[in-house]
Design brief:
Elements: E1 3-6, E2 9-16, E3 21-25, H1 39-42, E4 47-51, H2 68-81, E5 87-92, H3 94-105, E6 110-116, H4 130-136, H5 143-154, H6 159-162, H7 164-176, H8 181-192, E7 212-217, H9 226-234, E8 238-243, H10 250-253, H11 255-267
Parallel strand pairs: 3-4, 3-5, 5-6, 6-7, 7-8
Antiparallel strand pairs: 1-2, 2-4
Length: 269
């Protein structure tokens, strides 16, 4: 298992393919595995770097409230360790917070930026839907059923009926690779730290100078797609793409469509 020191901790990472580097930053509780359906296609054209954020997977899990800036420093440190001076950066959900921080704190390291199913924090973003909040905070019942409910509300309606094998693979992975409760709670700090207006990225996004793609699923109930326009309004060189028939976890739901959109964006001069 490849690991390296970055920002004072040990991070697990994977690389695949060759060409311009593309670094993928996972959402809360996830790591390199989150991208496994997309990486093989992306690696045909790019050197794809995936990794477990601190607090998840095989990376170190120091306790304490994490921030987007802290995880951005981890990502920058990983790039330095891998001798990657500049890369395309994609961050999903919590990883989108990290990607925003990276683009603001380390602009020299970011070529093109993809903000995926995320928001800018603060009081003016569109919050999680009441439906998704009710499901994700419901701790009753069998743990496997709670996991299954969380997956289904995070995906587009009808996903389980259309792709039952993906749901079962997903559940099986989570059973075999349970979350670190302490690590997950620490990662919760990333979003919580952005709640105050003074900590939000909203007013700082005008300083992002990287061409930016804002990518959302049409039926995202966790981070509603209305956040895409809010981000676009703040970032100077930004475009929005909404993936039809997808929810919050489009890397699992519609990986081929997502890859096609990403490759088109990255190939654009």
């Amino acid at each position: 298992m490849p690991k390296t020191q970055a920002n004072g901790i040990e991070l697990y990472y994977e690389t695949q393919g060759s060409g311009e580097p593309l670094v993928l930053i996972a959402g809360i509780g996830y790591g390199a595995w989150m991208w496994h359906k997309m990486v093989p296609q992306l690696a045909d054209d790019y050197q794809v770097v995936t990794f477990d954020n601190r607090g998840a997977g095989e990376s170190d899990k120091p306790v304490g409230g994490y921030t987007a800036q802290l995880l951005a420093a981890d990502t920058a440190g990983l790039m330095d360790a891998l001798e990657i001076s500049k890369a395309h950066i994609m961050g999903h959900s919590m990883g989108g917070f990290v990607a925003q921080a990276l683009a603001l704190d380390y602009p020299e390291k970011v070529d093109k930026l993809i903000l995926s199913a995320t928001n800018f924090g603060g009081p003016r973003h569109i919050p999680i839907t009441t439906e998704a909040m009710a499901v994700l905070t419901d701790m009753t019942g069998d743990p496997i059923e709670r996991l299954r409910r969380g997956i289904l509300v995070s995906c587009a309606p009808g996903f389980a009926e259309k792709q039952p094998q993906v749901v079962e693979e997903w559940v099986s992975y989570r059973v075999q690779h349970p979350l670190s409760l302490a690590g997950y709670q620490s990662q919760l700090g990333v979003g919580l730290s952005l709640i105050p207006e003074s900590a939000s990225f909203e007013k700082r996004l005008k300083d992002i100078n990287a061409p930016t793609l804002i990518l959302f699923g049409e039926y995202d109930r966790v981070v509603p797609p209305g956040n895409a326009e809010l981000l676009e309004n703040q970032i100077p060189d930004a475009a929005v793409k909404i993936l039809p028939g997808a929810g919050h976890f489009f890397p699992f739901e519609t990986p081929q469509t997502a890859v096609s959109v990403i490759l088109e964006f990255l190939g654009r001069e």
